[in-house]
Every structure is written in C-alpha cells, then in structure tokens.
Design goal:
The chain is globular. It has 2 domains: about 30 residues; about 150 residues, Alpha-Beta Barrel (TIM Barrel). Helices cover about 45% and strands about 15% of the residues. The protein is α/β, with parallel strands linked by helices.
C-alpha cells in the first residue's frame, strides 16, 4: 500500500473513531511523525494534504526542515533538553513536550530573544512510567501558576503518552486522569 492509500485508510479510521465518540472529525489534527523519513517523503505527504509534522530530535529537524515544503508546520514531539531550546524555538511551531519549569523558563527566554510567542503543550507522566518524560501530575498542578506567567509561552493544553497495549480499555484511565 502506498502513501496515498495509507493516508486514506488512516483518515477513515479517524472518521470512524469520531463517529463513535460523537465528535466532529474536523476537530482532530493529524500530526504525521516524520522521524527517520527523508524530506522527499515529507514533501509527498504535504502534496497529499497533510500539513503538520512531528519530529522528536532537534538535530534531525535542523537538517530536514529547510529541505521540506514551506507549507509544512512542525511540532517537536520528543523530549527537549534545555541546551537545545534555542534551536527548538527557531524550528518549531509548537513544542508538545514541556516537562519542567526549568525548561519552560529557558524556552521563554529564547522565545523573548526571538521576539515571538511560542505555543506549547505541557507533558504529564500520568502513568508514572520511569522510562517516560513528563511532569508528575502533582508537580504540574503546583507549577501551573508559574508556568502561566511566562509572557512568551502560550499553553495550548496537555499531552501524555499512555503505556503501550493493544487493549484500549487499559489506557483509557490514563487519559481520563489527564483530562
């Protein structure tokens, strides 16, 4: 199956899930993960109508993004170290993985230097998995007021990565708690 067929099948799955949840499919944003895919593949997916791409490594994005269509919008979906915040602020339209007050401070400082407001998602580690990054829920709640004070960061929501399992009922409690 080619890219067009895979995309059509995925879009149908999204519509079906939205029907079950009584949700408008237009309210769902597809973020195509482009990790380890060349710019040519990204450009083909842009031609097929996908506009948002997720990268999880700043270094890979730094090389790839300039070679991709200017119509593509970019999200950082992986863990971000503070020493890469400057590049991340320059490269990404949204950072989905802010997991500490320290990182938020650095992003705010770098966004101020770049004269921009940076949309972010706060990453919560709801399942308390040691191998995953993210705020412990209690700390996120305790630091939320301070996070809201950064003038160059715009909090767009929360993000969590649930434990992998083929059984949806096992991950639903993670997303309920996040909500």
């Amino acid at each position: 199956m080619g890219l067009a067929e895979n995309l059509a099948a995925l879009q149908q799955r999204i519509r079906d899930a939205c029907d079950r949840a009584r949700r408008d499919p237009a309210s769902v944003a597809l973020v195509a993960v482009s990790k380890n895919h060349p710019p040519e593949a990204v450009n083909e997916v842009v031609r097929l109508g996908v506009g948002v791409f997720g990268e999880n490594r700043v270094q890979e994005a730094k090389v790839k993004i300039p070679m991709c269509s200017g119509r593509a919008r970019w999200h950082l979906i992986g863990h971000l170290q503070t020493n890469k915040a400057r590049d991340a602020v320059q490269l990404f339209d949204l950072i989905e993985s802010v997991d500490s007050l320290h990182l938020a401070e650095e992003l705010n400082r770098r966004a101020e230097q770049a004269a921009r407001t940076l949309p972010i998602l706060l990453q919560a580690n709801i399942a308390a998995e040691a191998a995953k990054f993210g705020y412990p829920p209690e700390r996120l709640l305790a630091e939320l007021e301070a996070l809201n004070r950064f003038p160059h960061l715009e909090i767009h929501g929360l993000m969590a990565i649930a434990p992998w399992t083929p059984e949806p009922e096992k991950v639903r409690p993670v997303f309920r708690k996040l909500r």
